Amino acid sequence: MTTTDPLRAQKLADQFGRHVAMRLDAGTTEIPYEVSERLRAARVRALQVRRQPEVAPVMVGRGGVATLGWTGWFHRVASVLPLLVLAAGLVLIHGLMTERRASELAEVDAALLTDDLPPAAYADPGFVQFLKSGGGD
Fold first, then answer.
1. 65-68/59-62 β-pairing
2. Does 16 share its domain with 78?
3. What's the rounded Cα separation, in Å, for the pair 49 and 43?
């Protein structure tokens, strides 16, 4: 391991702190009470600062994916909501396209049934295109 490894660096810092604390504790019997109380208060403040590091929001791994922030039901609903909107949109588009196609076929059938045409016109390959373009009106 190298010294740049965060866990090893933290372990070395903790060991150094313990050695310093042992050296300081060795001479505490000779220190006046007021000074020892100020040192004790400073130690308590230092430990409080040490216990409250400022870090980013908690990262929670789920299935190999790291996420930030919310966990719980809101996160689940928020992650599924785009998929539901996409599915609803696809169903809506399919319904509209089916309705449009049925409407076009109904127009062709209505034009065939209402016009007086010779029988040869029905066999013409461009007849449906002719009706769609409005030439049968």
1. antiparallel
2. no
3. 10
Length of the chain equals 137
HEC letters along 44-110: HHHHHHHHCCCCCCCEEEECCEEEECCCCHHHHHHHHHHHHHHHHHHHHHHHHHHHHHHHHHHHHHH
Distance CA 79, CA 72 (A): 11
Q: What whole-number distance in Å separates Cα of residue 52 and Cα of residue 107? A: 74
- Phi and psi at 53, nearest 5°, equal -70, 145
- Per-residue pLDDT of 38-84, as tens digits, reads 888 998 888 887 766 555 555 555 565 665 555 677 777 888 899 99
**pLDDT tens-digit profile of 76-114?**
788 889 999 999 999 999 999 999 999 999 998 887 778
| Domain around 94 | 69-137
Tokens of 11: 């372990």
73/43 same-domain check: no
